[in-house]
Design a protein that fits this description.
This protein is mostly beta strands and 926 residues long. It is built from 6 helices and 49 strands. A hairpin with a 2-residue loop joins strand 31 and strand 32 (627-638). The longest helix is centred in the first third of the chain and has 13 residues, at 4-16. It is globular, with a radius of gyration of 31 Å. The two termini are 42 Å apart. It is found in: Cell outer membrane. Residues 412-447 are annotated as: Disordered. Residues 425-435 have a biased composition (Basic and acidic residues). Residues 456-799 form the Outer membrane protein beta-barrel domain.
């Protein structure tokens, strides 16, 4: 693998050599004026097939570089003008100057004809780049994700995340409408590429800016997928089923029925091959909050995720135990009339997740001689059922008034059975304590939330009023049993046996409203005033019982019943100054927070009142439509939770004892972000970079006391300030002579903070740096080749007498799609992962190889059969490395081994009869 990029460089150099030449010219109107953003195509003189293209700059000038030494056709197109074609013969030198290519305007008469065979690949508009999908060929049965990978200026990584013109794509729409909410992957991985007519990459303004007409400088990168006309009134999709060795199976279906004014889509899947479904966001809903790994030696009945700020470096490439998933969803959009739109979706998920995990954690102390290791082995069986639905109603009352109603409902049921053992070893390797535990929990959670937004435009342009009211309600019930044996070794061995049952009910309610008013001041100056009020109420009733001689005895120390009421009020005013090239926002807010809490079992009242002034400033400058810079300064407040404030000792885990602190102050954070984006639509060069600086006053950290038996006592405290820096850049460029693209990206995360351990404050610095390289080569519709690497290094530097901790994780990937004999396709994905951790004396390399061979058949290639092998080398890839404030840790989990699978896919493409008559059914059976 280390020679991979050396070979790549040699290929680039070799491909760049030869007697090629450049073609330049100017596309002009009938009067000789340059036409900006005109499309210029390079066509084969023999058959007029498209080879390359570009767009003109602001002066109408274009250049096609590294053109092979042969005769070509150069064709220019521009909206409202007749296409113009000129012959490009090889020049004597290295440059062919075509001079001005004059274009004639089209007639306004109704005799114009659109030539379907003429596929203008790219059209550039003010804030939109539009790609003609017909000009970018994809393989049979390809998804939209495969189409996006072929578009210049668009990148799709291995996880399916989309970057367009250097920026992360936040939303993917279908014909301008939401598709299963805001998750882009649901559209790109489930809609067929051949259903798309155009791909529009849009720099969308914020909803508030679109409503008020006042540009606030906020942008959201979006993609809109415009369907072909026949798909807008038809049914299309696909269904897949597969069986494999070791009883592996998978099935997936995607059906869409679109008509004028309505969209209906169905997704379904079932597998035991660790395919979580549709996206990582969906997976988080599958697992549920109660499925997190328990973090202590003795275990807690209430299982919670670690909160110590660890930085995960590698997620095991989706090899985190064995998962069986059944999931399905329904999405619909309906235009009731021209003023009323309805959108909604429903998902159901069922996940069975079995994990066997071994964790090795080295805990760092102020005195290195007191460092100790914690080793845990556990198995967990988790079952989760989740139902959730949402809807949106948009109603345009008239030209000045509108309403939007949003609603979400969810139901979650989780069962978790965990068994494990752990031991703590001192620096000499002697066991100081150990534990064996069995924990069973089951619970349900119901949640509902909604909002109603009213907007009004006054007669004076820029004068607007909006009122947004929201509510949420959540009710959860959990019960569980805990059996644990904890032993402490010293001069006298001590043993603590736990045999407990618990029941906990939690209810939370939130009501709030925000009012915003904008007033034009003249000269493109505006004033915005806003006020928000929100009340959050929580009631928790937790009962713990000790089981003694099969009798339940109430444990008052571990039980807790409390209520809390947070009241937030915030008012603010912003001044905005907008110009054609830039806009400026200066504002200030005042926030008051009142907390009233009561610990009913202990008759302890908690009351806190916080007041803060929150300034804000934003500046945006647009050099061109595709080059801009923004600078944002914001302040925010994070109040401590009722759990952090309550002075109650939680010793349900004898190895990890927690106590709240009623004297905590809120965290006050200053945040500065500088963002720069540049994209050249003529050369498809993209560059994106940002740096984010965050400074927190009165940072809240969990201070720890660790005694001679390595029992950990944790209490939240306000310590010295904290600083974090995040930076990221991405650069992409095409190499047209090699039909290739290169993408270079990197990130830097640095954190300066403090922690308190055994009454000693330890200042530390953590740095994580990542470099990503990616090379893509495409040859017609025959070969797609991708080479990539990701190298991450993390360094922890401690002020106390501790050696620096450093480790490196690297991943090298080769992906190839090869089409041959018209109907065959070979796909391979090879990942080489290298973990190097000197601190734990750990070094491991893992090779993962997946190979598949497929063949399309039936009429119009509607059928596809695929033979695949996953993890051909039969490697265990469930490895994770993590670094925290005062520890480093390595985890290994069970993972899927090698298996073979054969699958069949059937593609559905049915044009609906607009007359309606009779109707037909289309049934897929396996």
């Amino acid at each position: 693998m280390k020679h991979l990029f050396t070979i790549l460089c040699l290929l680039i150099v070799a491909g760049a050599s030869g007697q090629n030449f450049n073609i330049k010219g100017e596309v002009a109107d009938e009067n000789g004026g340059g036409l900006p953003a005109a499309t210029v195509m390079l066509l084969n003189a023999e058959d007029s097939t498209l080879v390359n293209f570009t767009v003109t700059n602001a002066d109408g000038v274009f250049e096609l570089k590294n053109v092979r030494n042969k005769r070509w056709l150069v064709k220019a197109t521009f909206l409202g003008y007749h296409p113009a074609t000129v012959v490009a013969n090889p020049p004597e030198g290295a440059l062919l100057d075509l001079g001005k290519i004059r274009m004639q305007p089209k007639s306004t008469q109704l005799d114009e004809v659109t030539v379907e065979g003429e596929h203008i690949p790219v059209t550039v508009k003010k804030d939109t780049i539009e790609y003609n999908a017909r000009a970018f060929k994809t393989a049979n049965n390809a998804m939209v994700e495969d189409l996006l990978k072929k578009l210049p200026g668009v990148e799709v990584n291995g996880d399916g995340d989309i970057t367009a013109q250097g920026e992360q794509v936040q939303r993917v729409m279908v014909d301008g409408k939401e598709f299963f909410g805001r998750d882009p992957k649901l559209a790109t991985r489930n809609l067929p590429a051949d259903a798309i007519e155009k791909v529009q990459v849009v720099d969308g303004k914020s909803e508030q800016a679109q409503f008020s007409g006042i540009d606030d400088g906020k942008r959201e990168k979006m993609i809109n997928l415009e369907l072909k006309e026949d798909r807008k009134n038809g049914a299309f999709g696909h269904a897949t089923a597969g069986v494999g060795t070791d009883d592996r199976f998978e099935a997936k279906t995607n059906l869409n029925r679109f008509t004028k004014g309505s969209q209906l889509s169905l997704l379904g899947m079932a597998n035991n091959t660790n395919q979580q479904g549709f996206s990582i966001d969906e997976y988080m809903n599958f697992t549920g909050a109660a499925s997190q790994m328990m973090g202590g030696g003795g275990g807690r009945i209430t299982i919670s995720a670690n909160s110590d700020g660890g930085i995960p470096l590698n997620f095991g490439n989706n090899n985190n135990g064995i998962m069986t998933t059944i999931a399905g969803g329904l999405n619909f959009n309906k235009d009731i009339n021209q003023d009323l739109e309805l959108n909604g979706s429903y998902f159901l998920n069922n996940l069975e997740h079995d994990i066997s995990r071994t964790s090795v954690r080295e805990n760092l102390q102020p005195d290195p001689e007191r460092n100790f290791n914690y080793i845990e082995e556990s198995t967990r069986e988790n079952t989760n059922n989740n139902h959730r639905g949402n809807f949106t109603i948009n109603y345009a009352i008239d030209s000045a008034n509108s309403l939007r109603l949003n609603g979400n409902l969810s139901f979650n049921n989780t069962t978790t059975n965990t068994m494990g053992s752990s031991r703590t070893l001192d620096s000499d390797g002697s066991v100081r304590n150990d534990s064996e535990q069995s924990n069973y929990t089951t619970g349900t959670s119901d949640r509902a939330n909604g909002s109603l937004l009213f907007r009004h435009k006054f007669g004076k342009k820029g004068r607007t009023l909006s009122v947004n009211s929201e509510f949420s309600y959540q009710d959860s019930e959990n019960e569980g049993t805990l059996q644990a044996v904890n032993r402490f070794y010293g001069p006298v061995t001590e043993e603590i046996i736990l045999n407990q049952e618990s029941v906990q009910e939690t209810q939370s309610r939130v009501l709030g409203s925000t009012v915003s008013y904008t007033e034009p001041l003249g000269g493109r100056k505006y004033l915005e005033a806003n006020y928000s009020i929100r009340q959050s109420t929580n009631d928790v009733d937790r009962e713990v019982y000790n089981i003694v001689n099969e009798q339940l005895i109430f444990n008052e120390l571990l039980s807790n019943k409390y209520s809390s009421d947070y009241l937030y009020q915030r008012g603010g005013v912003n001044f905005r100054y907008n110009q054609r090239k830039y806009n400026l926002t200066l504002g200030v807010g005042y926030q008051a927070t009142q907390l009233d809490g009561l610990l009913e079992l202990r008759n302890v009242a908690i009351g806190q009142h916080f007041e803060n002034v929150l300034p804000v400033a934003r500046f945006n400058y647009e050099f061109t439509n595709f080059k801009r810079v923004s600078i944002d300064y914001e302040t925010s407040v994070q109040e401590p939770s009722i759990q952090q404030l309550q002075p109650v000792v939680d010793n349900s885990d004898p190895l990890n004892i927690y106590e709240g602190n009623p004297n905590l102050q809120p965290e006050y954070t200053h945040n500065v972000r500088v963002n720069f984006n540049s994209f050249n639509p003529m050369k498809f060069l993209g560059f994106f970079a940002f740096i984010n600086l965050s400074y927190t006053e009165h940072a809240i950290v969990d201070t720890q006391q660790i005694n001679e038996q390595f029992i950990r006592y944790t209490r939240p405290e306000n310590v010295s300030d904290a600083l974090s820096i995040r930076a990221n850049f991405n650069f992409s460029l095409p190499i047209t002579v090699l039909k290739s693209r290169i993408n270079i990206g990197g990130s830097l995360n640095e954190r300066h903070a403090s922690t308190v351990l055994n009454d000693v404050q330890n200042n530390f610095r953590q740095t994580s740096a990542t470099l990503n390289l990616r090379y893509n080569f495409t040859y017609k519709e025959i070969l797609d080749l991708s080479l990539s690497s990701s190298i991450n290094k993390q360094l922890s530097d401690y002020e106390l007498n501790q050696p620096d901790q450093a480790f490196v994780n690297s991943t090298y990937t080769v992906e190839m799609n090869y089409s041959f004999l018209k109907s065959y396709q070979l796909q391979t994905v090879y990942n080489y992962m290298l973990y190097d951790n000197e601190s734990l004396n750990f070094k491991e390399d893992i090779s993962l190889l997946n190979v598949s061979l497929s063949r399309t058949f039936l009429k119009n290639n509607k059928g596809e059969i695929k033979l695949s092998v996953v993890n051909l080398l039969d490697e265990n890839a469930g490895v994770t490395q993590t670094a925290g404030v005062n520890y480093i840790e390595r985890q290994s989990t069970n993972a899927l081994g090698r298996y073979f699978m054969v699958g069949f896919t059937y593609t559905i493409n049915k044009h609906l009869n607009p007359v309606g008559g009779g109707g037909r059914r289309m049934i897929f059976r396996r």
